[in-house]
């Protein structure tokens, strides 16, 4: 009888131990799975939260950009064309010659004796420059000064580099060295989510003064009207 009780007790203890060990293993597996799932879920939630904050920042930038663009008047677009002519993306020497011709037409007492185009100056990082020399004759020095003032009030932008004069009672001669400038436009625009920074008052005044420069005259050619030819082979 004692042997049976010991055997039965041993069987019950073994069964309870296996059941308890199985519960421990199951709990351990569940705990490991919980830790893994929590770690993965935490990474996903963190990534989604970062994306949400980034999207919110982009949204705020786009809203501000929309407000800035909506406040731009039509007058600003008109000025942008004038500014693009003042500092174009290609060599503007022909426009400058056109401006000089306009001055000579309005001031027939001033004559150009020579016009020499020099080489390009590429010392500036983002701006190209071309130097040219003009030798003029006039009845008095005041006409030469008027020409210099005129050239600094026209578009494209012209800078007087040097001036040499020689005058007598009959004629005033002058040799003026000037430069014109141009700059390539950006190859690509900034990303749409980049903030737009407003110009300060000084920058606005500079742009306004540039936009008010006298523009070159662009001639427009009217299309020719076709005529009837008696001999179509001529």
Notable traits:
disordered N terminus; four-stranded antiparallel beta sheet; 18% strand; 4 strands; single chain; rod-shaped; 234 residues; 5 helices; alpha+beta
Order of adjacent strands in the largest pleated sheet: 1-2-4-3
Structural class: alpha+beta
Radius of gyration: 41 Å
Largest sheet: 4 strands, antiparallel
Q: What is the terminal separation in angstroms?
A: 139 Å
Overall geometry: rod-shaped
Beta-strand content bin? 15-25%
Low-confidence stretches: 2-9
H-E string: HHHEEHEEH
Q: What fraction, in percent, of the residue positions are helical?
A: 40-55%
Strand runs, count:
4
Mean pLDDT: 76
Count of runs of 4 or more consecutive helical residues: 5
3D structure, described in words:
- By secondary structure, the protein is an alpha+beta fold.
- The protein is 50% helix and 18% strand.
- It has helices spanning 2-70, 74-86, 93-106, 141-151, 201-211; strands at residues 111-121, 128-138, 158-167, 172-182.
- Strands 1-2-4-3 form a four-stranded antiparallel sheet.
- Strand 3 (158-167) and strand 4 form a beta hairpin.
- The longest helix has 69 residues, at 2-70.
- The chain is rod-shaped.
- The termini are far apart.
- The model is unreliable at 2-9 (pLDDT under 50).
